[in-house]
Specification:
Its EC number is 2.6.1.-. The chain is of the alpha/beta class. The protein has 13 helices and 13 strands.
Length: about 400
């Protein structure tokens, strides 16, 4: 194996050197070595991609759909996304210039932040939040401003937002909102979003809204800031969660043309264009598979309700998730707030893998995240192992 030449000029991005690797992946890799462990660590749906969507991929292969496509994505797919967003958000996005097909929602977020931030710009992020937002903001040269929502049932209030904007001063440029939220499963009512929209509008912020879990809401319809202040919103979504297409890496961005022009430039430099066959699958999903998520949603809701009862019985304090497929549970008081130590001990002794809450930012200490995107059988076994773990400690 070749060794790096010791005489090479100094290498390494100085910004990247200050950023730790993904804590979620790192912890998952660490405990994956434990024999017999059941992991509820990653947001990976356990369902198969719907058959008619897979058949669209096969048709694409047979048609030799293997050449470069438009950087922004196939026009037919952008038209399907526009029609879907018109139906679900009531916003008219122009397929040419206002919609980009991306390599998953992850690339969508990266391209948006790189294209829109300048060094030192501040990005407000309500926490707990998906840790990718922190790292991608920093890689783009921005500064993360966490807004701890643990005192308000993990729901950002207009008052909290106003205080954070004022404290950040003129460098406050954007806010990242994820609803339903990873890791808490919390989402927003129409009234709650309208109140936040007033503050965002008053202070002329850009809202980057990650709505990847929008089809997996349980207790009320999904609401979107894009419906309220479309001129200040970049909407992020995709097919990974709604159609169990995580490996297809199919996401998209929608927003005002003047904003999207900057993001499109970055996107074209990062990936050139998205895989044609994944786009064929997405066209099928968005034109003939809009009802596919219903089956998934009902299963997730059933699993949520089962785990909520089991965890409460064991002494966990849990905020009721309203969407996505995560539970963010406060560990019993007798274990203190060292969620990493608790999660490691649980993995070793009970052979159950959960993500320590601290990786999700301010206000997350003393919690663990469970993904219930797993089979009923696995969840039943996890509940059994957890009960035995606590019984052994009694």
């Amino acid at each position: 194996m070749p060794a790096a030449d010791p005489n090479l000029r100094p290498l390494g991005n100085q910004v990247l050197a200050q950023i730790a690797p993904s804590a979620i992946r790192a912890f998952d890799n660490e405990i994956s070595q434990i024999p017999g462990i059941i992991k509820l660590t990653l947001g990976e749906p356990d369902f198969a991609v719907p058959d008619h969507v897979k058949e669209a991929v096969i048709r694409g292969v047979q048609a030799d759909d293997s050449h470069y496509g438009p950087s922004a994505g196939k026009l037919e797919l952008r038209q399907a996304i526009a029609a879907y967003l018109k139906k679900t958000r009531g916003v008219d996005y122009e397929p040419n210039g206002e919609i980009i097909v991306t390599d998953g929602a992850t690339e969508a977020i990266s391209a948006a932040l790189i294209g829109l931030l300048n060094p030192g710009d501040k990005v407000l992020i309500p926490t707990p939040a998906f840790s990718l937002y922190f790292t991608n903001t920093e890689m783009a040269g921005g500064e993360v401003v966490m807004i701890d929502t643990s005192s308000s049932d993990f729901t950002l209030t207009p008052e909290q937002l106003e205080l954070a904007i004022v404290a950040s001063g003129e460098r406050a440029k954007a806010i990242i909102l994820n609803y339903p939220c990873n890791p808490t499963g919390k989402t927003y009512t129409k009234g709650e979003l309208e109140a936040l929209a007033e503050v965002i509008k008053q202070h002329h912020l850009l809202a980057i809204c990650d709505e990847i879990y929008s089809e997996l809401t349980f207790d009320h319809d999904h609401n979107s800031l894009a419906s309220m202040i479309p001129g200040q919103v970049v909407l992020v979504s995709g097919l990974s969660k709604s159609h169990a297409m995580t490996g297809y890496r199919l996401g998209y961005l929608a927003g005002p043309a003047a904003v999207m022009a900057k993001v499109t430039k970055v996107h074209s430099f990062l990936v050139t264009c998205v895989d044609n066959l994944a786009q064929d699958a997405a066209i099928e999903a968005l034109t003939k598979g809009l009802d596919d998520p219903i089956v998934f949603r009902e299963a997730y809701k059933r699993r949520r309700d089962f785990l909520l009862g089991e965890l409460a019985e064991m002494g966990f304090e849990v905020t009721r998730p309203e969407g996505a497929f995560y539970i963010f549970a406060k560990i019993p008081e007798k274990f203190g707030t060292d969620d990493f130590a608790f999660a490691v001990d649980l993995a070793k002794k009970a052979k159950v893998g959960l993500i320590p809450g601290s990786v999700f930012g301010a206000g997350s200490e003393g919690y663990v995240r469970l993904s219930y995107a797993a089979s009923d059988e696995k969840l039943f076994e996890v509940a059994k192992r957890l009960k035995q773990y606590f019984a052994d400690l009694a």
